Amino acid sequence: MCEELHQLYREKYGISEMDWALFSAKLLRQNFDRKELVLAAGKREGYLSYVEAGILRLYLPLGEKELTLGFVFAGDFISVYDSFLEQKPSLFSVEVVRAAKLWRISYADLQLIYAQTEIGNLIGRKMAEELFLLKQKREIALLTRTAEQRYLDLFEQRPELIRQIPLKYIASYIGVSPQALSRIRKRISL
User: Fold this and answer.
1) Does residue 91 or residue 120 have the better pLDDT?
2) SS3 at position 69
3) What is the DSSP letter of 45?
4) Helix (H, G, I), strand (E, B), or coil: what is residue 5?
5) How many Å apart are CA 23 and CA 109, to the nearest integer?
6) CB under 8 Å to 84, separation ≥6 — which residues?
7) How far apart (Å, rounded) are the C-alpha atoms in residues 184 and 56?
8) Which of 36, 86, 29, 31 minimizes the C-alpha distance to 57?
9) Which of 49, 61, 85, 180 is 20–30 Å from 128 (CA)?
10) pTM reported for the whole predicted model
11) What is the structure's pLDDT at 153?
12) Average model confidence (pLDDT) across the chain
């Protein structure tokens, strides 16, 4: 079982061993290779996942173009949450940037955990709040910060990992062309 997730739930939420046993019995471990789609646009998000290892990218496919909405790193949770909650097709795709190991719980199993445990409801609410805050911070950054500031923010948050993401994805994420990102990077290094 995912010891990191167990420790996180124990330290952050005080999950009991009995509740952990119930929850962990529902977890499915899956490995994904680089460039593999975890979820394709148009498909329903069936899982809430914890990233044990790897880097993933959420993006909106727009024909020949893609708009990167975010990156998810080891130690984070990932889900196309609106699709997961409503059990409707996703507008977004999730692609593996660096080989990933995910611990996943299905929508149906999560509903069972909510029904059978109090701690499940607390953890579910806290994870939903975290996902909401990430989304809100992203929206505010897009509205109030320059592309250069968004690049620096991303670089400051995860400098050791950001070097592993192709520049075209970073450019898409901050809302500029790869050429504009090159100019930003050149200005910063001066």
Assistant:
1) 91
2) strand
3) P
4) helix
5) 9
6) 45, 46, 47, 48, 107
7) 24
8) 36
9) 61
10) 0.88
11) 87
12) 90
What distances in angstroms separate CA 172 from CA 8, 35, 117, one per listed residue? 32, 17, 41
Give me the mean pLDDT over the 3-27 stretch.
Answer: 89
- For residue range 138-157, list pLDDT tens digits in order: 889 889 999 999 888 888 88
Q: Which amino acid, 50?
A: Y
Residues 121-131: tens digit of each pLDDT: 888 888 888 88
CB-based burial label for 82 (10 Å; 0-12, 13-18, 19+): middle
The amino acid present at 153, given as its one-letter code, is D
**Length in residues, the chain:** 190
Question: What span, in angstroms and rounded, lies between the C-alpha atoms of 61 and 39?
Answer: 12
DSSP-assigned letter for residue 181: H
> 46, 20 in Cβ contact below 8 A?
no
| pLDDT of amino acid 190 | 58
Q: Which tokens belong to 171?
A: 């450019």
Q: What is the DSSP-derived secondary structure letter of residue 29?
A: E
> Which contiguous run of DSSP H or E holds residue 118?
helix 118-144
Amino acid at site 151: Y
pLDDT at 5 over 90: no
CB 31 within 8 A of CB 54: no
